[in-house]
Amino acid sequence: MVNASFVNVGRWSALGLGVLYGFTHNRSLHKLESKNKVEQEYERKERLIEQARLEYAKKHFKPTSSEALVTDVDSPDFDFEKFIAHLESQDKQ
User: Fold this and answer.
1) 29, 43, 51, 82: most buried, per Cβ within 10 A?
2) 77 near 70, Cβ under 8 Å?
3) How far is it, in rounded angstroms, from Cα 92 to Cα 48?
């Protein structure tokens, strides 16, 4: 049979390793949770900024009429199809 002192050393070693594993696993879970909280807060702020930007745009910029022709190619309101149609209508006249 195995000596009783070897059995006790094995049991205490297993207990110590289990406590050490539990401690390190708990730390890693807390780090992951705090990282997720920071990311969620950042995403929430991004959404709020985007909503505020859209509301500001609604209040301060009047929509362009469908009749107006934007000829600036770098403008975000530039419509290539309207521009071509406008050039074709000028050629016909």
Assistant:
1) 82
2) yes
3) 50
Name the amino acid, one letter, at 29.
Answer: L
pLDDT value of residue 66:
53
Say which residue the tokens 């910029």 belong to.
61
C-alpha–C-alpha distance, residues 89 and 50, integer Å: 40
What distance in Å separates the CA atoms of residue 33 and residue 67, rounded to the nearest whole number?
A: 54
Closest CA to 68 of 58, 57, 83: 83
Q: Could you give the 3-state DSSP secondary structure of residue 3?
A: coil
Q: pLDDT of 18-71, one tens digit each?
A: 999 999 999 999 999 999 999 999 999 999 999 999 998 888 876 555 556 777
Helix, strand, or coil (residue 74): coil
- Assess contact for 32 and 46: CB atoms under 8 A: no
CA atoms within 13 A on the CB side of 29: 6
